[in-house]
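Annex B.
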Amino acid sequence: MATPPKRRAVEAIGEKVLRYEAFISDVLQRDLRKVLDHRDKVYEQLAKYLQLRNVIERLQEAKHSELYMQVDLGCNFFVDTVVSDTSRIYVALGYGFFLELTLAEALKFIDRKSSLLTELSNSLTKDSMNIKAHIHMLLEGLRELQGLQNFPETSHH
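Protein UXT: predicted structure tokens.
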């Protein structure tokens, strides 16, 4: 039977293990989820800008003054429309603001915005890697703490 000081040491280690596990699940994994969700949203924005770039490049190649297309009015309700002047385009800047640009200006804007979004996604990826490293480090520490409990006790003379 363990002596009271040894029992308290084992209980203290158990409490530390529980605190570390709670920190991992309540803080680090939550932070990791937030960072990865934010990065996914950035990837979605980047994909939309790249899709817009492809559309603009096709418009420049076609060199048509009119464009027949379908526009989504919402809830997947599409109507046919004619765009009479394809030399200019409205680009969403964010926060509900739109700017009318020439196709060349729009491409420059898209390149700059894509570059910024790529930098942001790279930063978020680094952040997620740091959080994963912290989780891994704490899990290794927990294994060591729990492993110490399983070692046979040596008697001190």
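The beta strands are 67-72, 78-83, 88-94, 97-102. The chain is about 70% helix and 15% strand. Further annotation is deferred to the next reporting cycle.
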